[in-house]
Amino acid sequence: MSDSIQIVPRRSEERGHADHGWLKTFHTFSFAMYQQSGHDHYGCLRVINEDRVAAHNGFGTHSHREFEIFSYVVEGELEHKDSMGNTEILSRGHVQLTSAGTGISHSEKAHGTKPVHFLQIWSIPSTPRLTPNYFTRFFSDEEKTDKWVRVVAPVSAEGVKKDLRDGKGSDGNGDGPAPVQSPLTLYASIVGEGKKVTQEMTGTKGYFHVIMTSGYNEDKAQGGTVKISGSGGEVMLREGDGAYLQVKPGSEFVVENVGDRKAEILLFDLA
């Protein structure tokens, strides 16, 4: 990677975090009781919460407006119910997107006898007062191994199904990325030891995150280690760490796994 990508690390221990017993959570951006100047949002990206919810617990029915809300399930099963009539059990590999628009209510709970680990991500839509909608996609570990997979993309992007259903319910496990109403593309990958993945960036900003697959640690990142490079030199990131990216469009973003175990990673390309 050349000088065309500048990197500002966001270390895991710098994030907001809380242990409520039933919920162990990390906040990349200001959220709930955690408020941190300079970390309110990044482009259209407003929330990245890495949550672990205990079995038989979860977020009761509550309402949202004017956000694109998507869940990336890492482990366990997530039970989703909403005011549009959608009820679904989501497992590892599922990406679920709720376009809240003019307003929806939903609940998110751990299904079954095991906890669920998932990332809840919010973005700001380009157009206000949209009709609420819901989509589910599934991406296997095999699809993501040692390559990037586009799991969320703008409705205007090439290859994105535009079959919005005007709030009439889920389109099921459709093909391709979930259609988001924000200038945001989300890529996911599982990178093996000694492997590299490369992605050409199209926006002027990006955000990179290493998922905490090895467990919860409120003090510091642990687990897998990856290396990214830019005009500020090489940066090592461990599980839970992230990085703000300032990008010259067309630049190649390269991630190398330099640790002793596989690393599951997310890359946001932001217009």
From TrEMBL:
Co-factor binding comment: Binds 1 Fe cation per subunit.
Organism: Tetrapyrgos nigripes
Taxonomic superkingdom: Eukaryota
Name of the protein described by the UniProt record: Pirin N-terminal domain-containing protein
Ranges where the Pirin N-terminal domain occurs: 14-122
UniProt family annotation: Belongs to the pirin family.
MF (Gene Ontology): metal ion binding
Binding site for Fe cation: H62, H64, H106, E108
Cofactor(s) it depends on: Fe cation
Key words, A-Z: Iron, Metal-binding
